[in-house]
Amino acid sequence: MSVLNRYIFAWLAGCFAYLPAFAEPDVQTSKNYYAVSGMTADDIRASLTRNSPVTYNGKKHDARTDWQVSWNYYWHETPRDCKLTRVNTSLEVSYTLPRLTTVAKLEEPLKSRWNNYYEALLQHEQGHQNFGLESAREIETTLHALGPRKDCETLQNDANSVGHRILQKYAALEKSYDRETNHGIKNGAVFP
Predict the structure, then answer these.
(1) For residue 143, which of 84, 92, 77 has the smallest C-alpha distance?
(2) Full DSSP string of 176-188
(3) What pLDDT digit, counting tens, does each position of 172-188 carry?
(4) This prediction's pTM
(5) Residue 89 near residue 139, CB atoms below 8 Å
């Protein structure tokens, strides 16, 4: 490596040292299952409908994903201004999913049908989690870029307003996702 290349490399490394480090949000997930049984497709469907605790707009659904983003930040105050020095975000995700208790006893074609449905259902629900994850990432990135404010109270108000606006944006995107996929049905999350 030439002297010039080493100099440029050292200069670039020094520049990156001053960029804020973005951590991935801390993600905590939980899965809550409800029991489903049956030996025929119709019996399993009836059990899904009967046992599902998930209701949205007066209609039963097979699964649900709830997420909540929170953020913490730290600031440095001077006589002139107040600026953020560190931002952390976290995401809590709770899945409500069916668990077919009779899956081991099913004939192969029906078992395969269930497994395909369940895989599509999980993928759809993970799509919901991704909205939470992306909102947490955007909150962290946007708050890191938030410039100084005249005082810390203004900084806190602005930071929290930004966070809540981002959450509203992703809540609207999530509703569109369900409309576009018909709650996952267009992607195979339908049984039988």
Answers:
(1) 84
(2) HHHHHHTTTGGGT
(3) 999 999 999 999 999 99
(4) 0.84
(5) yes
